[in-house]
Amino acid sequence: xxxxxxAFTQGCVFMPYTEIKKWRNNEIEKQETSDELNAFHDxxxxxxxxxxxxxxxxxxxxxxxxYAWFVMGSAGRYEQAIISDQDHGLIYEEENExxxxxxxxxxxxxxFGLHEAGYPYCDGNVMSSNPVWCRSKQSWKKQLAGxxxxxxxxxxxxxxxxxxxxxxxxxxxxxxxxxxHIHDFINQKPDLLERFLENTMHVKKAVGxxxxxxxxxxxxxxxxxxxxxxxxxxxxNAVRLLAxxxxxxxxxxxxxxxxxxxxxxxxxxLKSCKEDFDKLLHYRLMHHKKMTENYEDIHxxxxxxxxxxxxxxxxxxxxxGEKLQDYTQSVIKGMMRR
Amino acid sequence: xxxxxxxxxxxxxxxGALLVILMQGGFILLEAGSTRMKNAGxxxxxxxxxxxxxxxxxxxxxxxxxxxxxxxxFIGLSNFFYSGDQADGMPYSTAAFFLFQLAFAGISxxxxxxxxxxxxxxxxxxxxxxxxxxxxxxxxxHWIWGGxxxxxxxxxxxxxxxxxxxxxxxAAFAATILLKPRxxxxxxxxxxxxxxxxxxxxxxxxxxxLWVGWFGFNGGxxxxxxxxxxxxxxxxxNIAAGAGAVAALIISWIVLGKSDIPTILNGAxxxxxxxxxxxxxxxxxxxxxxGFVAGILVFYSxxxxxxxxxxxxxxxxxxxxxxxxxxxxxTGLFATPELAAxxxxxxxxxxGFSQLGVQAMGVTVSxxxxxxxxxxxxxxxxxxxxGLRVSEEEEIIGLDVSEHGNYGYPEAFIANEEKNRIAx
Lengths: 338, 424
Fold this sequence. Notes:
The complex is a heterodimer. By secondary structure, chain A is of the alpha+beta class. Chain A folds into two domains: 187 residues, Beta Polymerase, domain 2 (2-Layer Sandwich), CATH 3.30.460; 143 residues. Chain A contains 14 helices and six strands. In chain A, the strands form two sheets. A four-stranded mixed sheet of chain A has the order 3-2-1-4, sandwiched between helices. Chain A has a two-stranded antiparallel ribbon with strand order 5-6. The longest helix of chain A is centred in the C-terminal third of the chain and has 30 residues. Chain A is globular. The N terminus of chain A is likely disordered. Chain B has one domain: Orthogonal Bundle (Ammonium transporter fold). Chain B is 69% helix and 0% strand. Chain B contains 15 helices and no strands. The model of chain B has no long low-confidence stretch (mean pLDDT 95).
C-alpha cells in the first residue's frame, strides 16, 4: 500500500476523485504538523487537478496554451485545517474563444473534482468555475486594475483574497506578475492600504474586560471560541497588510513574518508573533482531530476541553493578536500621516 | 378645600389608571418585538382580549376578593359585581380607585402570559386569564394590600414588586415549565439558541411606553396628591430605571465584550420592577443602587434560566421575577425611618434585620403561593384541554395563522406563499 501511495504522491498514477477522497480519509488524520498537513493537502489538490485535466483532455484535447492554477484563502497561505473549503483560480496565456471555452470547462471540472474529493464548495464562489477567477492574463490585468481603482467593499475583498494566491500547477510567474501590479499601485497610492485596513480590522472580541475568555453564548457552539474569527484573522490580516506594504511575495503567514522580520523596523514587534501563530495552528490541529467532519465546526475550540495552562496560553495568543492589529494600524496610519 | 382635594385625588387616580392601562400597549410592543413575525398579530390581539376578560372578572369577583369585608385567610367576601358605590371616608372616588386596581390586575396577568409566548393555544390564554384573575392574583393582593395577614405583618410593597410583578412572573414560570421550550430553542448538546425577536425598535419602544406608564404605576400608588409626594416617588422611579439600563450595559459589555441591546432594555425594566416596592420608602441614592443592582441581576438571571433549560421568550422570569424579589427585599435594607409609612426602617437605617425578615418571608410565601396554584391550575388545564400547546405544525407556521387565520404581516408571508405556489 505504501508503495502505491508513494507512487500517487509522485504523480505517476492517475486517480479518480473517489480514490483521492479515500486516500484523503485514510491519511489526513495521520498528519502530525500543520506543515505536513498542508503538504498533504497540496498533493491531494494536485491529484485532483490531474484527474480534472484528464477528464477535460478526453473531451476537448490538450490545453490550448500555457496556464497557471493557483489556490487562495487558507490553502494559499499554506495553513489549511483538516477540513477547508476550496478557493482557487486559473490564469491562461492567450485570450480567444477557444481558450476561454477550454478553461471555463476546466474550471468547472476543478470545482466539481475538489468537491468530490472532500473540499466543500466556497460560499463566496471564489472558484475557477466562476469567470471572475478564471481568465486570461490580459483580462486578469484589466480586472485587477479595475478593482484597484474601484475601491469598493467587494473589490477590496477580492484584492485581499487574490493577494494570498499561490500557484499550485503551471506558470508561477503569472501570479507573481499580477501581484507586482498591486505592489506598483500601492507604491504610487499608499492610501489604498488604509482601505485594506478598514476592511479587515473588525475582529470578534474573544478576551473580555477581566481578561476572561469570551466563548459563544448561544447556538450549538456555545462554550467554544471561534478560532477563525478571533484567533487566526487578526494575525492573518495584520501580517498580510504589512506584507502588502513591504511588497513581500511569499504567501504563508509564517513566511511573511520571517520575511518582514528581516526589516529592522518590524523585528521587535513580530518577535513573539511567529510563535503565537504557530501555536494557533497547533491548537487547531490537536483539537480538531477529535472533531466531526463538518466544515462549520472545524473553527471552534471548546474551552472546557482546555487545560488551565492552555486557557492561559490561548488568552495570551488572542490578546497578542489584538496587539498586533493595533500595531499594524498605527504603522499604516503613521505612514499616511507622513 | 376637602372637595377640591377629593376631585384632585380622583383625577390623579384616573390618570394613574390610564397610564397603567397604556402599559398594555408597552407590553404589546415589547412582547411582539421580542418574538417572531409569524406570531406578532396573535401577541398583540391576545393582550387586548385577555385584558378585557380580566377587567370583567375583576369587576365581578377580583375587587371583592382583594378589598372586600368579611375576609377569611385568603380573600375578602364582599363588594362583588362592584356597583360604583362610594365608600365612606375615602378621600377619592372609589370608582377611580377600582379602575386603578383593575389596571394592576391586568398588568399582572399580561406578565404571566409572557411565559406562554409563541406556543400556547389561544384557549389556554382564555381559560387561564379567568383562573389567574380569580384564584391567583387576588389572594396575594389581598394579603399585602387588602388588609390581609402580610399587611398586618408590616410588609412593604408600595406599588407591587411582589403583588403585581412577582405574582405574574411565577405564573409565567409555571407555564413555561409545563409548556416546555419552543421548537429550536435548545440543541441536543444542551446549548441554547438565540431565537431573535423580529423588531428591536418595537421592543425598545415597548420599554419606553412601560417606563412612562410606570409613573402612573408608582406615582399613582400614592392615591392622594395633597403633599405632592407622588413627585418624589416618580423621581425615584426614573433614576432607578436609568441606573438599571446603565448597569445592564456595563455588565454585558464586561462579560460579553459587547453592549447587548436586549440586556440594556431588560436592565431598564428590571430597575423599574425593583423600585416599584421601594419607591416611596427609600432615599434617592438608594433608588440608584436598587436600580443598578437590578440591572446586573437581570443579566445573570437570564443566563441562569438558559442554563436550567427554561425557555423564557420575553425574559418575564428575570425582569419581573428576579427583579421583583430584589425590589421587595431592598426596602428591608434601605427603607428610612421617615419614609417607612408601613413597617419599619431597613437594615442600613438602624432597623436591624426585622424588616428584611418580614420582606423575605412575605416574598417567599407569595412566590410559592403564586407558583404552586398556577402550576396546579395549568396542570389541570393541560389534562382537561388535552394540552396547552399548539401542534408542532401550528407552531412552525405561526400562531397568527394557526389561531386566528390571519397574518400580522400579510405582505411578508403571503408573498412567500405565492412564490411557493408558483415554484410548485
